[in-house]
Design goal:
The complex is a heterodimer of chains A (367) and B (175).
Chain A: E1 8-12, E2 24-30, E3 33-40, H1 48-52, H2 61-65, H3 72-87, H4 93-122, H5 127-147, E4 156-157, E5 160-161, H6 169-191, H7 195-201, H8 209-214, H9 220-224, H10 231-234, H11 255-279, E6 298-306, E7 309-317, E8 325-329, H12 331-334, H13 339-343, H14 348-358, H15 362-366
Antiparallel strand pairs in A: 1-2, 2-3, 4-5, 6-7, 7-8
Chain B: E1 5-6, H1 9-19, E2 24-27, E3 32-34, H2 39-48, E4 56-64, E5 68-77, E6 82-91, E7 96-98, H3 107-118, E8 121-123
Parallel strand pairs in B: 1-6, 3-6, 7-8
Antiparallel strand pairs in B: 2-3, 4-5, 5-6
The chains are: A alpha+beta (367), B alpha/beta (175).
């Protein structure tokens, strides 16, 4: 005897603790198995690309803070690099080192947040999340010290950075760099062989290397599938070509591999920070940039490796004081391209874990 | 450390002309402009060719250039570490571009985004509908002639005028 079943549509989100923002999924279920998954976004759409066309090149920097608000520094950096390439502005060496230093601090903060919430989604309730928050908090204190803001930083400007380091910055950063490896060892021993985490995330949400490449996945999503591609190595910007670091990769592209890649990247970022601290040269930290910047007519596609992946800006200038077109290639949105392929065939509980491992930021998905 | 090289437009156009005849419309230093009808063939050739290996689509961007729309595709080869850019033009009245989703799955959401904000129809897209805005939203906001907001061409730089009763639909309010 066979039981007649009907597919059922379940709506997850937009207000749901596991969707990390106002993200909504419509999943079709056959029993416990997912047969179709569709994402519905736009709840946080602020039409930044249109707004940016009415503001000057410099006035657009704060928009980049508000895209990925957990990694505002890399948003600033990507946009400023694109404008500098378009306008032909050279950044002094100290400015470049400070950019690398803060971009890597931001990567640690963002990955700590991503892994903390991911482990939370897996069912290791709250404790790892708050451990990770503790490290992130110290980094945000450093940001506050240097620019007065903790989330929407607006620190990296066209031509350099906004302020030089205050005197008390370096000792506090040194203290963080000294204690973080021990903390990471502690988290590794707590989490890497953790039964809950392994049961929930091993062999879940597998992305094959072919799918990862075809669906334009970036960042830890791409590297978790075993493709060693990092724009910091492949197309170095700022002074990353002087830094010595490795690209961690996963083996089978499941959620656990993406978690491991992020954990390993925190350690690599720490290595880069140490080198940047040692090599930090004296001198000016920003170039003189005219207040009414008018880049020559033309277009540029410039990209960096943000914590979420490839953050690119496609800027078109008509020689005026405002951008003609201001397009963001946001990694959070494009990492969702393979959502259906990842979800179909899994259970609902696995869907939550899979979404957590993508590490989206809805501010950047919707813009 | 080798930085990413970009394949120059004329160089790429020569390769494309060898494989798909009569596909190139115009070339410049940084990009190749293709005829819309041969876009998918060219993209498939560039993806599968061993020497070009354009298997990784970085970004799809649409631009409103007043008289026409332009869609730009930025592609990278992860194995050879080089990039190139393709462009395609669409008519302003009836903008239509063939979809490259059969070639690169990564274009799926980006083409939906461009359809939503610029109103370019991607023919052959498996699920073409608005991404951010709701069905029934009037117009496409990233078009340069999008005048739905009060304030005309510079809605952000002026004070927001008082709304007319019933301007956005619904009942007129009587205070």
């Amino acid at each position: 005897m066979s039981i007649k079943t009907e597919p059922m549509v379940v709506n997850i989100g937009p207000q749901h603790p596991s969707t990390h923002g106002v993200f909504r999924m419509r999943v079709t279920l056959d029993g416990e198995r997912i047969t179709d998954a569709e994402m519905v976004v736009g709840y946080l759409h602020r039409s930044m690309e249109k707004l940016a066309e009415e503001r000057t090149w410099t006035q657009n920097i704060p928009f980049t803070d508000r895209m990925d608000y957990l990694a505002a520094m890399t948003g600033n950096l990507s946009y400023c690099l694109a404008v500098e390439k378009l306008a032909g502005i050279d950044v002094p060496e100290r400015g470049q080192y400070l950019r690398v230093l803060f971009a890597e601090l931001q990567r640690i903060a963002s990955h700590a947040m991503a892994n903390g919430t991911f482990v939370n989604d897996c069912g290791a309730w709250q404790t790892p999340l708050f451990y990770m928050f503790r490290e992130r908090e110290k980094i945000l204190d450093l940001f506050e010290m240097v620019c007065g803001a903790r989330l929407t930083l607006n620190y990296i400007r066209i031509g350099g950075v906004a302020f030089d380091l205050p005197d008390e910055f370096m000792p506090q950063l040194q203290a963080l760099v000294d204690e973080l490896p021990d903390r990471m060892d502690e988290y590794d021993s707590l989490l890497l062989d953790n039964e809950i985490l392994l049961m929930r995330s091993r062999d879940v949400g597998i992305v094959s290397p072919e799918l990862a490449m075809n669906a334009s996945l970036t960042g830890p999503m791409l590297r978790g599938s075993g493709i060693a591609w990092d724009i910091r190595k492949a197309d170095p910007y700022c002074v990353y070509d002087r830094m010595d670091f490795d690209i961690p990769v996963g083996h089978q592209g499941d959620c656990y591999d993406r978690f491991l890649v992020r954990m390993a990247e925190i350690r690599q970022s720490l290595r880069i920070i140490k080198q940047a601290m040692a090599q930090l040269p004296p001198g000016p930290f920003a170039a003189q940039v005219p207040l009414s910047l008018r880049p020559p007519a033309g277009e540029i596609y410039s990209r960096i490796e943000s914590p979420k992946g490839e953050l690119g800006f496609y800027l078109v200038s008509d020689g005026g004081p405002t951008p003609f077109r201001w397009h963001v290639r946001s990694p959070s949105l494009i990492n969702l391209s393979a959502l259906r392929e990842m979800m179909v065939g899994q259970t609902v509980a696995d869907a939550i874990v899979t979404l957590g491992s993508i590490d989206i930021n809805v501010g950047e998905v919707d813009r | 450390m080798p930085a990413t090289k970009s394949i120059s437009g004329p160089q790429l156009a020569e390769r494309i002309s060898g494989a798909v005849p009569d596909a190139v419309e115009e070339t410049a230093d940084g990009w190749v402009q293709l005829r819309p009808q041969s876009l998918v063939d060219v993209c498939r050739y560039l993806r599968d060719d061993r020497e070009i290996d354009g298997r990784y689509l970085n970004s799809v961007s649409g631009v409103d250039k007043f008289d026409y729309f332009e869609v730009a595709y930025h592609v990278t080869s992860l194995s050879h570490n080089h990039t190139f850019a393709l462009k395609v033009r669409a008519d302003h009245e009836q903008p239509e571009v063939p979809s490259v989703v059969p070639v690169w799955l990564g274009a799926h959401l980006q083409e939906r985004e461009i359809f939503d904000l610029l109103g370019i129809r991607f023919t052959g897209h498996p699920d073409l509908k608005r991404l951010f805005l709701w069905e029934g939203f009037p117009g496409h906001p990233l078009r340069k002639d999008f005048m739905a907001l009060p304030g005309g061409e510079h809605p952000g730089l002026q004070r927001f005028p008082k709304e007319e009763p019933g301007q956005w639909g619904g009942e007129a309010r009587v205070d």
